[in-house]
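Chapter review: from sequence to fold.
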Amino acid sequence: MSESSSKFLRDDWGRGSVLTARLLRYIVAALSVALALGTNLLLSPYLEPAPSPPFFAAIMVSAWYGGLGPGLAAIALSTLTINFFLIEPAYSLSIPDLGTLIQLGIFVMAAILINSLNAAQRAAQQRAEASLRALRQSEARFGCLAESNFIGMLAADLSGSVLEANDVFLQMVGYTKEDLCSGRMRWREMTPPEFLEASEKALQELKTTGACTPFEKEYIRKEGSRVPVLHGAVMTGAETFTGFVLDLSERKRSEAVQQAAARRERSLHVEVQAAKNQLETVLGSINDQFLVLDREWRYTYVNDRVVETVGISRENLLGRSIWEVFPETVGSEFYTAVHRAVAEQSIVHLDYLYLPWQRWFENHIYPSETGVSVLVTEITERKQVEAALRQSEARFQLLVSNMPGMVYRYAPCLGRSKSFTYISSGSRELVELEPATILQDANSLLELIHPDDLPSFESSIVSAVEDSLPWQWEGRLTTPSGNLKWIQGRSRAQQTEYGDVWDGLFLDITDRKQAEEALRQSQTTLSAFIACSPIGIAFFDQNLRYVHANEALATTNGLPLSHHFGRTLWEVLPNWAPLLAPVLQRVMQTREPLLNQEIVGVTYPADVVRHSLVNYFPVCLSNGQVLGVGVTSMDITERRHVEEILRQSEERFRDLADNIAQLAWMADETGAIFWYNRRWFEYTGTTFEEMAGWGWQQVHHPDFVEAVTAKFRSCVAAGSTWEDTFPLRGRDGEYRWFLSRAIPIHNEQGQVVRWFGTNTDVTERLQAEQERERLLEREQSARAEAEAANRIKDEFLAVLSHELRSPLNPILGWSRLLQTSQLDTERAKQALVTIERNARLQAELIEDLLDVSRILRGKLNLTVSPVNLTAITKAALETVRLAAEAKAIEIRTGEIGERSLDLANAPSLMVLGDSTRLQQVVWNLLSNAVKFTPVGGRVEVKLALVTGEGLRVEDLEPNELGQGTSGKFAQITVSDTGKGISPNFLPHVFDYFRQGDSATTRKFGGLGLGLAIVRHLVELHGGSVRADSPGEGLGATFTVRLPLMPAQPVPAESPSLSDVSLSLKGVRVLVVDDDTDTREFVAFLLEQSGAEVTTAANAEAALATLAQAQPDILLSDIGMPKTDGYMLLRQVRALPADLGGEVPAIALTAYAGDYNQQQALEAGFQRHMSKPLEPQALIKLIAELVVRS
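The token string follows.
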């Protein structure tokens, strides 16, 4: 239920209650009159003739209970009742006479007087009760105020006794209730002597005015300490007063004072109206502004501080709206806060910057039913301090964030508990803990300390705290990740009002500790090294006095080690001092070392000559100050003896090495060569100056020198045997291969002192090995190729067998039917057509095989002449047109600019090539397109002229096609909608013996040679061929591009064979063939053309026939028993002309290769014609030779 609904119900219920109470009073009045009437009727014999007394009683009761109104109502009802019931005539309201009227009038006046007296008494009683309730409420409020913990209050007399006091005052002065009740509290005795005068003045003012101005004083506590207070008082009796005491010692912060003042103001203003003036006096004495606004935001109260701050008199402020006085605050944060406090009836605190004054004010807003009270404290200075503190804190945080380690503040508490009040972010890196973790639990940091270092940590803290000394500690801790770190802790105590706090820093000194440990180990190692070193070591101070020395030096000097320390060089080595002292002095003066100085002299014991290798070096501080000079002395006496022996041995060795066949050399321990034998210089043609050290790299092959050098340096560093093979350049500039080896030579201590190496010429051996490897590689490659060729050959032979046998089946079948059956004319014609078609198919297969054989052997020759590519394309189209029509395949043609190709009037595109082979190319592509295109498909042929970059030359006129043909190509494009080519097979479509489908279930026949032949023929003509297909079932496109021949007059066409008469009438022909069927077929064919044919089954019969009569032409098979066709023709050509030695001859053979053709021409044949024979071609060829002869 909403608040408005609740209020409505309460108001409605209240109004109902009031109406009910009021109505009840009138009902009581009516009932009283009725009761009086009944009483009068019952007692009428006794009341005659005056019936008024009962009615007077009813009027008194009504007036007493209900007040004036119900009393008047009772008077009216009583008068009417008496007149109606008790005065004759009864039951009538008429007044019979004047006496009755006077009687009633006297009754009414008496009743009114009674009613007035009762009403006055009742009103007085109500006022007394209200005053009593107000007094009780005031006492209750005053008691609450007295018992509150906001201000101390006491009741005292003028003589000095404290009669009453609230708990605040008792707590303030340290007394108890028992002290108060016993009378031991006297305010004069509790007042220090220096404040008695001020107290007396306040007492006089109190007696004079009834109140005293608040003043500051002190009270002496029970235990003897003092408490400063602000004291005010008001007289509450002739000899008593009430004091108000404010403890000033607790006002550490202005906010506490302001809140206390606000609570005091609200309590005094709202609850204790009687103490308003006294509280206003207290409020006027505080240093904060205090103001009160009513519901209309008008000033109703302002203290003196407000007047001083605003600069407007109190008279001009009171009654005015705060928004009128400060219009700049309308809509501001202060405006919003005040309205929110009133709307929510909640206390609001706000810090507000008043811009016109540039001053900060802290506002405590206390709403009430009558308005709002505001306690205002100027905090400008505090805000400035806070801003400065924030800046200082920011600088501190920046400083801490850039400091190494972890900054902390540690506050020891009572007992053994520990707490950190500040931890810097460096804890993350130092101890791998978040600052919040350590602040929450100090043990999280202390638990990381190494157990061995924990006792020293705790004892150092105890010592520092007990002796108030700065704390410092170094120890180890283990981070949560397991890292062991050395840390150093430093801290110093700061005394505060809350006790000592320790500000300190933890630093990571792990690196320093490791460095110290390394230095200690280094010093130990160095001391051990110096003591055990076989090299003599000494250190002299600036006075050349021995400071350090080792046993090796003492041994070299021939004196005990103890004889050196503290003595000068002259005292220890008087014989050597004149030689060594100047050197030592010079090293200290120049600060430059003097190295590898060999000295020879006699040392103790006498007569011992020693060789020493000495180094002198200055010993200086970092600032350059010279402390002395250090000396190292190595006794090389034995080495010098060994070197002499070695030198003699080397001389003998060199004499031997100069006479061996290998190249030989020696190098020092670093690998630098210092000797070559004579054979090296004889081979390389160099000098020692060129080859010394690492100069040998000059004669190395540049491709090998870097790797050889790196390997040799590696072996030198490792002291291991070196072996390598590489070429070296000889005197003649040629490189020869050498197997090179070098072995290290060690001294007695196992150290490498030199290297001995040789280079052996292995050129012939490497060449033999390389040749063997090449032969092996070729053999492996040949084997792989043979295996692949065999595999392809097997596949090819299987296909070839199928393709050759398939046509034989209808040929043999129809042949037998023709021989054994009586076929009708139509069926016999069909059989002959089938036999011819399959025979031609076999001939085409054989011709393809021969072409491939020629291509693979590079024996395919072209008869080059100007060729009209347009005519070639026409002829090829005519050849396949019938096959296309049989499958209902549409053939579309187009040319330059996509114009329709007119077979009769198409322009000529001239190329230089072999017309027969080019026609074979076009026919092959067209026949494949028709072959692989399904019924109802489409084949498209385009003939175009393109540039070398593949750009089309559009819309050229026919007379322009032969002009400027340089860089132009004729392009033939054959496209179909057939089975297409798979992407995997497309790269191999022009390979020999490769078919897209070589399975036994394939749909289309063929050997897979056609496209390979096409590619080779096109490339022989300087052109290119390309295959494209989107994929299987999507058709294919083949593009042939041939270069146009240079522009020249088109030659007249030569007479074709068709122009030569095909009649052989009168021509005498000798046919030689061991195969009876072929011999009879050729004889029959030629006789049908009118020739006179003589046949012979072998060479002997042919020669016999020639001896009898000479033919006009000789047709001979090549493959015959005993004497083949080549041998026969050689014998014929050996005959005289009159015996047929010059007769024209044609070789008829199944050996159709280029080699066979060439062999036939060399044997003397004019022409070579392969079987199976084309009748018309044979007749034309015979006619041509006969005509020419």
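Two observations follow directly from the output. DSSP finds 38 helices and 37 strands in the chain. The domain at 148-250 is CATH 3.30.450.20 (Beta-Lactamase).
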